[in-house]
Each structure stands twice: as C-alpha cells, then as structure tokens.
Amino acid sequence: MYRVACLLLVALFGVVYAVPSQYDSEQVWVAGNLSYPLPSNALVGGFDSFGYKLYVGRVNFTGTIAPCSVKAATGVAEGNTELFTFTERAYQLLTTKDNMDYEWIRSYDGILEDNAVSVGTSALNERVFICRAKSVDGLIIGSLFLTKKACLIKGLTTFNYIHLFDKYEVLIAVPKTNAKYY
User: Fold this and answer.
1) Residues in contact with 108: Cβ distance below 8 Å, sequence separation at least 6, in sequence order
2) How big is the CA angle at 59 (ends 48 and 129), to the nearest 5 degrees?
3) Is the pTM of this model over 0.70?
4) Is 12 in a helix, a strand, or coil?
5) How far apart are CA 159 and CA 154, in angstroms?
C-alpha cells in the first residue's frame, strides 16, 4: 500500500511539473534579433534611463514565457521570471493589429484587468501578463504573476536583482469600435 501511495504521489508531481509552458496566440508576435529589421508596428512599451525606446517582447526562459524589454539599438532583450533575470538575443516582438487599440492602464496588487495581454504561461501553467513600472532605470517592462500580486521588473543598473512594484501599469488590448461620431 505504501508503494502504491508513493507511486501515485510521484505521478502527481510528474504531471504537475510536466505541463509545458504555452505561448499565448491572441496577439501577433514576430521573431526578432539584431539580424532582423524592426517591424514598423512593433509596440513601444517604455524607455530606459538613457532615452532608448524599449519594445514589448517575450522570451521562453526556464519553462516560463516571460515578457521582456527589447532595446532595438542593441538587439538585446532583458526581463525576468518569478525567480530569475535574463538577457537574451533571440526573442519575439509584440506587433499591433489594425483592429485593436493597445493601452496601458493603472493597476495594483495583482488585480486581473479586463483584456490584459498575456505572453503565455509559466512552467507551473500560470498565465503571465505584461506590466510596466517607473524606476530609476526608466519606464521598464516587467512580468505580472497574479499570485505574486506585484509587477516584477529586472533592475537594469542593479543587475540580477528583481524589483517588486505593487502599483504598476498593465497592457490591455481592446477591439476598435467602428462607430462614427458626427
């Protein structure tokens, strides 16, 4: 009986940890690196302390699809998961769609805003959303894990340190209306 219980417990952990991260396919993401031209409709999400534009991107890092800040001038994407910070040279860029409006709205304490843009899921199958907050490093894109109740952002000047912001902005995408006003 003990062996059966142990096998069931091991199988349960195996199923939970075997759930692969999945990309969110509601938005249009295009491959990017320094070799590819920057799409004209790539979404700007912030800026660093030197004034460089930071584009909204995503990276699959250690089983988590994580949002990242992409600096087109250097071709580098920087971001974080719930535990790790990363710097990558291969990423995907979020591009705008003609039938959608993209907006940053204020939020706090891990509240799920209507129409929030997700990049995908974590290794534990938790949806990961795009957030940003203002710090000494600029207006930086981060990862919103609802269970953490904060926007997690990699510090650019404090390397390998994750800052938590309980007040931040969340990226939302809403369909454009075709109403005409006279």
Assistant:
1) 166, 167, 168
2) 75
3) yes
4) helix
5) 7
pLDDT digits (tens, 9 = 90+) for 9-49: 444 444 444 445 688 778 999 999 888 899 999 999 999 99
Say what the pLDDT of residue 130 is.
97
| Token reading at 19 | 């759930």
- Dig out the tokens for 75 from the structure: 């071709």
Residue of 116, 137, 114 whose CA lies nearest to 128: 116
Q: Which residue has the tokens 């912030």?
A: 46
Query: CA-to-CA distance for 151 and 140, rounded, in angstroms?
Result: 10
Residue 91 pairs in a beta bridge with 32
- Domain boundaries of the chain, sorted by first residue: 21-175
How far is residue 174 from each of residues 38, 97, 124, measured CA to CA in Å? 24, 11, 28
5's enclosing H/E stretch is: helix 2-18
Encode pLDDT of 83-140 as tens digits. 888 999 999 999 998 889 999 999 999 999 999 999 999 888 899 999 999 988 899 9
DSSP reduced 3-state for 142: strand
- Among 92, 31, 84, residue whose Cα is nearest residue 61: 84
Beta strands in 76-180 (DSSP E): 76-80, 85-88, 91-95, 100-108, 118-121, 127-135, 138-145, 150-154, 162-165, 167-175
Q: Other CB atoms closer than 10 Å to residue 75's CB: what's the count?
A: 17
